[in-house]
Amino acid sequence: MTVLKEMGMLVNRTPIFTVANVLTLVRVLLLVPIFFLIRRDGQAAQNLALFLVVLGWLTDGLDGYLARRLGQISELGKILDPIVDKIFVLFLVLFLILLRDFPSWILFIMLPRDVLILGGGFYLAGKRKTVEESQVWGKITTNALTVTAIAYLLRWRPVASVLLGLALVLMVISTWSYGRLFFRKLQEVS
Hints:
mainly alpha, Four Helix Bundle (Hemerythrin (Met), subunit A), 8 helices
């Protein structure tokens, strides 16, 4: 069976429409107004963009909390959450590259890293018939990248540069952490 068929079977084992999964999807939907607000001049538009970015960031923690609290942990949620995290941060960074002065070279690090992490996770899910939860270093890195994006959105250049350096270090650590997990889990399957 292909990995995608295996993933479909995993998703079908648990509820799909949960409060947590809906919150996760809201995070993606917030990207559209964020983009248009960042493009607009005026403090009100920038404040609203900032509010929506922070709201999207908060839903990342809230969806997991609600899934655990309401007993709605689902295989789909375990798959959707890291994908949506990466989409949210990636597009936010892309918007800021296009509309602010976020350095574009970060995409050459983010994209391969995210593809490797997601690809490895999908591969393992297909082999092990279960979805691994996100790792703490991945969550810390996502938070660091979001805070860095907020600093660029607010045009806090010196702070943004320091945060970008920290985010890069965390990206290396989280990539190493996911790589170790992948090879350990792969050995368990073999």
